[in-house]
TrEMBL record:
<dbReference type="Pfam" id="PF03483">
    <property type="entry name" value="B3_4"/>
</dbReference>
<dbReference type="GO" id="GO:0003723">
    <property type="term" value="F:RNA binding"/>
</dbReference>
<feature type="domain" description="B3/B4 tRNA-binding">
    <location>
        <begin position="60"/>
        <end position="212"/>
    </location>
</feature>
<dbReference type="GO" id="GO:0004826">
    <property type="term" value="F:phenylalanine-tRNA ligase activity"/>
</dbReference>
<protein>
    <submittedName>
        <fullName>B3/4 domain protein</fullName>
    </submittedName>
</protein>
<dbReference type="InterPro" id="IPR020825">
    <property type="entry name" value="Phe-tRNA_synthase-like_B3/B4"/>
</dbReference>
<dbReference type="InterPro" id="IPR005146">
    <property type="entry name" value="B3/B4_tRNA-bd"/>
</dbReference>
Length: 221
C-alpha cells in the first residue's frame, strides 16, 4: 500500500501502482522485443527533439520541477524526458534487463516516469510519499550517496526507494534475480489519472509476457 502524506498530496502529487509476481527477468521474449521496438518506432514517428519540451505532458513535469521542486529541468531532466531525448537523437533505448526495459518502453510510449522495485528488497509493507527528513541519505542507481534536502521521497521504514519523480535507489533496484515487482508511476498536476492507469495496464501486459501474474487491481493514491 502507498500512502501520500497531506503536505505532499496538497502539491497535486499522485501515483498509480501495481504489483506483479513471478516474472522471469533473465530471458527476453519475442513479444517483448516487438513491443520495445514498436515503442521506439512510434516515438520517432510522432515526436521530435525540437518540440519535445512543448509536449503538454512534458510541460507539466517540467513546471512541477521548476515551481514545486525548485529544480532546473534542463539540468535534472524528468526521467521519461531523458529517455525520450535519447531515442529522438537516434540512440537505442537503454537495455538493462527485461523488466526494466519493459518499463522504459512504456515510459516513452505514455510520456510518464515509471519506477519498478524488487519487492524482496523493500523493508516494511506500507510505503509513504513524504518529505525527506534532516540527515536522510539517498543511494541512487549509478551515482554516489548524497544527503537529501527537503525533497519528496517514496519511503518505507527509513528506506528510501525513490526521489520523486526522477531517481530510484540502488537498494531496491530490479536485477536478473528479481521475481516480484512493485510498479509506481508518478503523476503531477496537469497529467490525467487515466494516462497513468493506461501505462500501468500496458506494463502489466508486458510483464505477463515474462510469466508475471498481477496481485490485484491497479491502484491510485
Amino acid at each position: 500500500m502507498i500512502t501520500i502524506l497531506n503536505d505532499v498530496k496538497s502539491l497535486g502529487v499522485f501515483v498509480a501502482y501495481d504489483v506483479v509476481y513471478g516474472v522471469d527477468n533473465m530471458k527476453y521474449t519475442p513479444q517483448l522485443e516487438e513491443a520495445i521496438n514498436a515503442a521506439v518506432e512510434e516515438t520517432r514517428k510522432t515526436l521530435s527533439l525540437e518540440t519535445l519540451r512543448e509536449h503538454p505532458v512534458i510541460r507539466a513535469y517540467r513546471d512541477f520541477y521548476w515551481k514545486t521542486l525548485k529544480i532546473d529541468p534542463t539540468k535534472q531532466r524528468p526521467a521519461q524526458e531523458a529517455l525520450l531525448r535519447r531515442v529522438l537523437r537516434g540512440e537505442p533505448l537503454p537495455r538493462i534487463n527485461p523488466v526494466v526495459d519493459a518499463g522504459n518502453a512504456v515510459s516513452i510510449k505514455y510520456v510518464v516516469p515509471i519506477g519498478i522495485y524488487d519487492i524482496a528488497k523493500i523493508r516494511g509493507e506500507t510505503l509513504r510519499l513524504r518529505r525527506s527528513r534532516r540527515g536522510e541519505v539517498f543511494r541512487p542507481i549509478g551515482g554516489q550517496p548524497y544527503e537529501l534536502d527537503n525533497q519528496i521521497v517514496l519511503a518505507s521504514d527509513g528506506q528510501i526507494l525513490h526521489v520523486y519523480p526522477y531517481r530510484d535507489s540502488v537498494e531496491t533496484k530490479v536485477d536478473e534475480t528479481t521475481r516480484d515487482v512493485l510498479v509506481v508511476i508518478a503523476g503531477v498536476p496537469g497529467v490525467e489519472e487515466e494516462r497513468l492507469l493506461e501505462a500501468a495496464r500496458h506494463l502489466r501486459a508486458l510483464l505477463t509476457l515474462l510469466g508475471g501474474a498481477a496481485a490485484g487491481d491497479i491502484r491510485l493514491a
